[in-house]
Amino acid sequence: MKLLAGLMAMALVTCVLAAPLDDPANAEILRYSSENIGIDGYRFEFATSDGTSRTEQAELRNAGTDGEALVVRGSYSYTGPDGTVYVINYVADENGYQPEGAHIPK
User: Per DSSP, what are the bridge partners of residue 35?
Assistant: First the structure.
C-alpha cells in the first residue's frame, strides 16, 4: 500500500514538473512593479513566464480645468496561438483609445 501511495505521489510530482511554463494556465509572474502617484497618475509593469508583458503609465493633464484629462500610455505583448509575438502600443486620452501594432490595420 505504501509503495502504491509513493508511486502515485511521484507520478503527481512528475506531472506538475513536466507542465510547460509557457502555457498561460501555468504562467508564473516573473516581474511586477506598481507605483500609485496619487491623483496625478500611476505606473505599473509585469511580465509572466508565458511571454506576456505589459507596461502602463498615466498622468493627469490640465488639472482643475475644463480640459482636464487622464492620459494613459502603454504597451503589451503576448504570443498568439500561431506562435507570433504580438505587440500593441497604445495611448488613451481625450481622443479615445488609440492602439498601434504591426497586425492592426491603419
Answer: 43
Whole-prediction pTM value? 0.70
Q: Amino acid identity of 88?
A: I
C-alpha cell at position 91: 495611448
Structural contact between residues 28 and 46, judged by C-beta atoms closer than 8 angstroms: no
**Cell numbers representing residue 56 in the block:** 502602463
pLDDT, tens digit (0-9, with 9 covering 90-100), for 42-100: 999 999 999 999 999 999 998 889 988 889 999 999 999 999 999 999 999 989 999 99
Cα gap 12→4, rounded to integer Å: 12
Residue 58 Cα distances to 35, 45, 63, 88, 95, angstroms: 11, 12, 13, 17, 15
